[in-house]
Design a protein that fits this description.
Number of domains: 2
CATH class of the largest domain: Mainly Beta
Distance between the termini: 45 Å
CATH architecture of the largest domain: Sandwich
Structural class: mainly beta
Radius of gyration: 23 Å
Number of strands: 25
CATH topology of the largest domain: Immunoglobulin-like
Helix content: under 10%
Order of helices and strands: EEEEEEEHEEHEEEEEEEEEEEEEHEEHE
Largest sheet: 8 strands, antiparallel
Strand content: 35-45%
Low-confidence stretches: 1-23
Number of helices: 4
């Protein structure tokens, strides 16, 4: 199929690939829609955990020349926990050659590298070029998809890409992004040949497990990776520069934490020592500490951590930052004076 796509900025969840041998071409994403129909027939930017979310984006491809055997590529940015590579079904429709058909797209294999990012997968190249776009947590991935090639393609084509993916089991908010390109360009230097666009809405997954993971907004706390077992190393960060607070004036910042196990036991660490001291990042009021939860809490063999509750404090514990402070300062909620609700991190149990 021959395409000439007009460029338009879009964030993508999938990639359509076309092998274009053309004098000029333009790829444009015009519209992105992440809203779902709820039980009342309303279009909303949220879904219940475990249900299949449907995202669409549409635009035009314009080809000025011969685009024989070109592959159309699309990509989608989503949290890693969605496991898009295994869970997503991506299709597209076009209005010129076979408008009655929903064309299925296949996931890009790691061996299929972008023409202009040799030695890198499409996922890695997109992450390098675009990062996580309008999101503030890094635990996201781009997943690319490709179309079959067409023997002959030219002129202007209108397309719509549909992405269906299970929303997972965790409560979260994130901003999806979408991308289009063609195979012979492969994230090249000509910006007319690819486009990326972010959703206007921050998409939310509700009624799932654990505290809401907010990819859209900055908070005092940050954890990486978000999906971890008790035997994984986890980094806890206090982002003191997010809002004005007294803890950033302390000489040292420590983490106080309690691990809760599936077996019903609690293991608390509140000592002020090198073990709990958080390292200050250069030129920032941010502090972090990395540890292996199983060893940090000295969990007995045979027990499994289900969650960790934690706060950040100064050395004598008189100044602290908790979930209550974050709700008041960064989410605008009314919080009872002196409230000390801890942050909560849910671990994977298997």
């Amino acid at each position: 199929m021959k395409y000439y796509l007009k460029k338009h900025k879009v964030k993508a969840f999938s990639l359509l690939v076309l092998s274009l041998i053309v004098i000029g071409c333009s790829f444009l994403i015009k519209d992105v829609n992440v809203r779902q129909q709820n039980e009342d027939g309303e279009m909303v930017a949220y879904i219940k955990a475990g249900e299949v979310a449907t995202f669409t984006f549409s635009g035009t491809i314009s080809i000025d020349g011969d685009a024989s055997n070109e592959t159309f590529i699309v990509a989608f940015l989503a949290p890693r926990s969605w496991n898009v590579r295994q869970n997503a079904m991506v299709t597209y429709k076009e209005d010129k050659y076979e408008p009655e058909i929903d064309h299925k797209m296949t996931v890009m294999q790691d061996s299929e590298q972008p023409a202009n990012y040799k030695g890198m997968t499409w996922s890695a190249a997109l992450k390098k070029k675009y990062g996580v776009r309008g999101n503030v947590l890094n635990d996201m991935e781009w997943v690319a998809f490709k179309s079959n090639g067409y023997e002959k393609v030219n002129g202007t084509i209108n397309f719509t890409v549909t992405i269906k993916c299970n929303s997972g089991k965790s409560n979260m908010k994130f901003r999806p992004s979408f991308f289009i390109n063609h195979s012979s360009d492969g994230l090249g230097g000509n910006s007319e040949r690819y486009d990326v666009k972010d959703a206007d809405d921050c998409f939310e997954v509700l009624q799932g497990s654990g505290a809401t993971i907010d990819f859209c907004s900055m908070h005092y706390n940050q954890i990486e990776p978000l999906s971890a077992l008790q035997d994984d190393f986890v980094t806890f960060t206090f982002q003191g520069d997010v809002n004005s607070n007294e803890l950033t004036k302390a000489g040292n910042v420590y983490i106080e934490a309690t691990a809760y196990t599936i077996e019903g036991n609690q293991y608390k660490v509140n000592e002020k020592s090198a073990k709990t001291l958080m390292e200050r990042e250069v030129k920032l009021s941010r502090y972090n500490v990395t540890f292996w939860p199983g060893g940090f809490f000295n969990i007995p063999e045979g027990e499994t951590i289900s969650r960790i509750e934690y706060i950040f404090t100064n050395e004598d514990g008189t100044v602290f930052i908790s979930k209550s402070d974050d709700s008041r300062d960064n989410e605008g909620e009314e919080v009872e004076e002196g409230a000390k609700e801890p942050f909560v991190f849910e671990l994977q149990c298997e």
